[in-house]
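Problem 12. The chain below contains 552 residues. Write out its predicted structure in token notation.
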Amino acid sequence: MRKATIFLMLCLIPILSCTESNTKPVLKGKVTGADGKAPLMAHASLFALGDDPSESQQTVQIKPDGSFELELIKGRYNVLMLSAVNHQVVQIPLITDKENQNIEVDIILAAYDYNEDISKVKIIGDWNKFDFNTAEPMTPQDDGTFVYEREVAADTLVYQLINIEKTERSVNGTMSDYFRYDGGGDYRSVIKVQDGKARIVFDPSKLLKSKYQELPKITFDDNNESLSEFFQISHRTEVETQKALKAVRSYFNEHGNTRGFKYDFSAIKNICLEKISQKENELLRKYAAIKLIELVNFGENIDSEIIQQINSFLHIDDPIWAANPFLIMDFYKRVSDEKNAAQLFEDNLSKISVKKVRAAALIGIGLNAKMERNNDKLSKIYTELKTNYADMPPQIQFYINLLNPKKKISTGNPLPDFKVKLLDTGQIVSKESLLGKYYLMDFWAVWCGPCIGEMPKLHAVYEKFKGANFEILSLSLDQSLQNVKDFRNKKWKMPWMNVFLEGDTKNEITQAFDVMSIPKPILVNPEGMIIATSPDLRGDGLEKTLAKYLKK
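Solution.
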């Protein structure tokens, strides 16, 4: 009997070992609201670092007691996103090299950060497809509430409120029979409708206020305490960049441009520099470097010595670049130059394991080939991207389209036919009517910071060349004509031909001209041929390019 028992145990050993090795590590969590209670409705989503939350591999509704459980994604760094009714979204990086270790975390969420002045509250809903641009104001009442009424054919009405939360999100209201998750981190209020008429009341006194200070608060189990440091860097950077974006919008509204704007990132910059100097946690060091490099996109200067220090320990094939794949293009240009960066990408493509990072490296090679007019290499890179990266997110699709060597809007191609109505005169102009002139077509918008940054150069070249058979045709993609009029009534008069395209990136003109981002300048010669595009028509390059064709 003893021998049989031993034999059976020996037989089971490989089975048990196999079962254990295939067990997926688990993330367990407990969520508490800012009022100390479990949220009314909440969701937890898990996705790979660098992926968009909409690409979440797992999303679960959090249980009534606030608990949830998810399987960690093996082979990739993870990110946990938590959202709840009346609460701010929080994303928590789970960056660890302990592949098979379970993680436990407790989270206390922060309530929405409401505006002090909520008198401009507006409402959106299923009747206008939740479109911010057609939001309607709610009517203030003597008791401090706001009311919105409308007739409804269905038995429910779904809505959200805008202009009440500091990050300008659309959020649930204070009147709801139940809620629906909108898939992006916020919730929609649902009310039941009787007799075909809905009356929605927004009561500011019912807005949730935080019971605790310094929220959100994240606490990991003893085996994963170091993960809290990743969150602190990530969250602090997110908070500061959101403040910076709001500050630059405010600055623009006041000054009509963003020249002279500067935001103080010193606090988060110093935190990142401190972590970079510490070698005890190599993963944290690399993640801090990524977050520091991100600040360059907001105008923050990083000393070349720091760039070289980062280059010494953060290599191009490191999977942590997934946190922000497109940073590699700018970073390695700062390490050396664009040509050497492109060569580095070519030499290391096969070593880059994260697909989005590999796509960014290919794009870097393609952009350099485009700049050097190396059409053979450009065609090769474009084919590779088009064939193997067609499933990648819109940002990558944008660059694939940009690198298309057969694009309609390319130097040497004829300009597509068009016909537009000028704002100031009502005159119709077209490709045919402008034959015989050099002209610069400029797709732009008031809300586009880089577009506004080009205004000084545009006005300068117009004054210099306007008598040399040269015109400018600006085509606005703003949602409101009044915004364009207000802008032109201030500092930048734009005393040339102007057209309003009503913010529609899907109309015949924007599609014909491959307008996927702005500003988009196009220089046309008297024969109606495209002779220059961006970047030769941006910044100081604009005057230099025009001077090649226009004698003044």
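Discussion. The mean pLDDT is 89. Students who got a different answer should revisit the alignment rule from Section 12.3.
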